[in-house]
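hey team, just a heads up i'm posting the complex here instead of the shared drive bc the drive is being weird again. everything in one block, sequence lines first with there labels, then the predicted structure for the whole assembly after. its two chains so it's a bit long, scroll down
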Amino acid sequence: MCGTCGCGSEENGITIQNPVEVKAHIHDHTHAHDDHHHHHGEGHSHSHEHTHDHHHKTVLKVEQDILQHNEVMAARNRGYFDAKNILALNLVSSPGSGKTAILECTLTDLKDEISFSVIEGDQQTLNDADRIAAIKIPVIQINTGKGCHLESDMVYEAVKKLDIRDNSVLMIENVGNLVCPSMFNLGESKRVVIISTTEGVDKPIKYPDMFHTSDICIINKIDLLPYLNIDIEQLKKYALKVNPKLQFFEVSATTGEGMDAWYKWLRENNKL
Amino acid sequence: MHELSIAFGIVKIAEAETAKAKAKEVALIELEIGTLTGIEFESLDYVWPSAVKDTVLENAVKRINIITGKAKCADCDAIFEIEKIYDSCPICDSYLKGIIQGKELRVKALEVI
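-- predicted structure starts here --
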């Protein structure tokens, strides 16, 4: 289903693919959205308040969580990760904060000692998966179409395509979006929110839900600090107001500065 | 715009419950949504018509019970109302707290015909 206008398309508009397998098999999905756009235009100004006295009405007590399906599938994922002793990290951030750069840097430096696999989430393109595949790490790309976040059933399908080793680390790079992914549990072991020094100190209180639900906060692009007017301590203070349990790492994926502390954490949490 | 996913989730539940009750359509749907869930009510209203089109909810009246946020301070045990997720305890000013209300996102009841 198209995430914005709700129009139907193949496989709900979501594609889950291995970049190595699709290399030889590229096709363009141009489905016409024109038929559907009138949905938004419809006035719906007439009242629906009229009663249907002539019908028999029944009240059903439902009491069901709307996100229940997502939670159930997340629990399935978590069970699988637990059984195989997989450390699954859900990486979330605004677009452009450097999620993929941090991944590239981490995978390149640690691939000889830790077994990794990666799930990439983006609305379109295989670009990120191609970058990971270039480091020779198993990767699956989920394209959400118009969808603004990953959901647990997408991860469930992607995991089935990845032959994840026991005692390994699974990196799930969510769609770049600091709002929507916060509501959707993927079954991850830890949620890692990434913020870059170019984003402004008050991001944590502007978008509190994401910081509230995260365990780790990586502050990226610290190599740019000499050129920026940003107070990192204030940023941390705001983030700790939202979530007093957040653990911070200050890094630069470009220069490698600060990455050692992050690597140490990964090693400790990837218990063999 | 995660509200569309939420709307689809609501439709899914309504379709299943209506079929279970062997009813034709929903006349009224009652939702419970907390103010700390991250749902924009305006966005939900905006996506609603396209999400419910051609479903049992197409003609349903949507009633939302808004549930305000409440937290319990982890340091002094005070229970207090919160508007924002980062509000501190009014008694001891601690930010450590457990949210006890305001995260609801639930289909409470359906009136089916």
